Amino acid sequence: MARLLIPVSVIACVAMALTAGRQITPRHAKNSQGAAQMARDFSWPPEVGKRFPKAVFIDPHGTTVEMEQLQGRILLIEPIGMPCEACQAFVGGHEHGGFGGVQPQQNLPPIKELARTYGNFDLDDPRILKVQMLLFNMNLKMPTEDDAKRWSDHFGVTGSAGHLVLAGNGKLVDKESFRRIPGFWLVDEGFVVQADSTGHDPQHDLYEELLPMLGRMLETPAIH
Q1: CATH code for 9-24+45-217?
Q2: Model-level pTM greater than 0.90?
Q3: 169 pLDDT exceeds 70?
Q4: I need a surface site. Which of 12, 31, 67, 99 has the fewest CB within 10 A?
């Protein structure tokens, strides 16, 4: 079994977890069949070995973005709850300061530094698109275009060709999404999920598996 994504990240997101219990209402048993059908139709969450789900998001400019539009580049996708301390550390919170009064998780470097250390690659490589997928706003409800804009501006990613911030829709505000925070999915140029290091019990270790895998993908010819 892969080790925990970040040894202290359970503590780092505990405040978010406690709040989520009050914000996300569990489905009643009598609605379980309908909920299961909806989940099958929507195909969420992403699964390793399958194409990334056909999810629809809004960018900071209010433009609708279908995830399939991003096919053709290597995608490093980060599911985010905006109050999550680890998420804010990954995006560079120690450099830019915490967002919304949150203190970024201590001793957790930004993902761009981890990419160099564990994957031996530069996250600014034009073949990579870093996608920050906002699934919960600061109140653990559906994020908006304005949330995406303020997050993007705060962390200095506005206008970056290799970094995209997207706000999710109401279908994604559920326990399945919550369980994937913090972490990353690695999606290849063919839009297939290759690694899953999301949540506190990830399928793939971020440091020993996902980042080295991404580094190896950059050594092979791109899919045309």
Answers
A1: 3.40.30.10
A2: no
A3: yes
A4: 31
